[in-house]
Amino acid sequence: MAQHTGPRIAAVIGSPVAHSLSPVIHQAAFDSAGVDWVYTAFDIARGSAEEAISAMRLLGLAGLSVTMPHKSDVARLVDRLEPAARALDAVNTVSWDGDELVGSSTDGAGFVASLAEAGVDVTDARVAVIGAGGAARSVIDALGRAGAADITVLNRTQDRAEQAATLSPAASVGIVSDVTRADIVVNATSVGMGVEPGGATSVDMACDPGLLRAGQIVADLVYHPLETAWMRAAVDIGATTIDGLGMLVHQAALQQERWLGHRPDTAPMRAAAVTELAARRNAPR
Question: CB of 250 within 8 A of CB of 111?
Fold first, then answer.
């Protein structure tokens, strides 16, 4: 690792990356903790992950967050992978261990931590996960590691659902009516993103709200808006809802734990994200 002077620098790489909340969230944690770290964003074109990782080594960047489209490429470029990153073939965090670069995936563990913060223990739970993309895969992997008893994968494309279900012995492919019997229902798709509840239609719902029931935990990984139409319908039914910002904040906290050696207070991280989301929502178009 290169020698450096001045503040430690961490960054997110992706493309596009201008919309990322990571700089706001991470800088809030650094500032709150009083550490001399600076967090920024680099728009790195598809296919250029190797150059980015080489730059991390050359410049001695203290940590990287990795978003699309680089997660799989980075998994092949680091020196060592943590178990979740190896299983997912995807890295969202790069940290130093001596002179080695370690690739981690904190997304799924961040989701489980967001449930725990809300008092929800996934041990022995029956979970229905809607979706089979990258976010869903990280959630399925983490739920299995956290001891969920049954994970039902629901996706429009059967083969993708089957591939996602291989991530945990507790997972299997189900049908939409399986939502009703689940203790926890997770929307791990982008359905509902950017659609205010008042203007939503049935196509903006992750599933028919009529399948939900009172007493369920209903989690939506969408965080723009913070309350989706699907979540609002779940509240009306009597379910407890968890928004997607919790996962974003907690996966970032787990990243900082790898960089700094301790987990930061998530309260200022969430507050900074909420403020930034409100500013974007109210900005003139």
Answer: yes
Whether residue 62 contacts residue 70, with contact meaning beta carbons closer than 8 Å, is answered with no
Give dist(CA 212, CA 25) in Å, integer. Answer: 32
What contacts 157, CB < 8 A, 6 or more positions away?
Answer: 132
Which residue has tokens 């509840």?
Answer: 197
Give the integer Cα–Cα distance in Å for 200 and 195: 6
Question: Which residues are marked as active site?
Answer: 71
pTM: 0.94
> pLDDT by residue (tens digit) across 50-85?
999 999 999 999 999 999 999 999 999 999 999 999
Q: Tell me the C-alpha to C-alpha distance, in Å, between residue 79 and each of 68, 160, 249.
A: 20, 29, 26
Q: Which CATH class is domain 8-105+251-282?
A: alpha beta
For residue 133, count other CB atoms closer than 10 A to its CB.
Answer: 14
Count CB neighbours of 24 within 10 A: 17
Per residue in 1-47, pLDDT (tens digit) is 555 566 899 999 999 999 999 999 999 999 999 999 999 999 999 99
CATH 2.60.40.10 fits 109-243, yes or no: no
Inter-residue contact 106 to 254 (CB < 8 Å) = yes
Q: Is the pLDDT of residue 285 over 80?
A: no
Q: Do domains 8-105+251-282 and 109-243 have the same CATH topology?
A: yes
Ordered by start, the domain boundaries in the chain are 8-105+251-282, 109-243
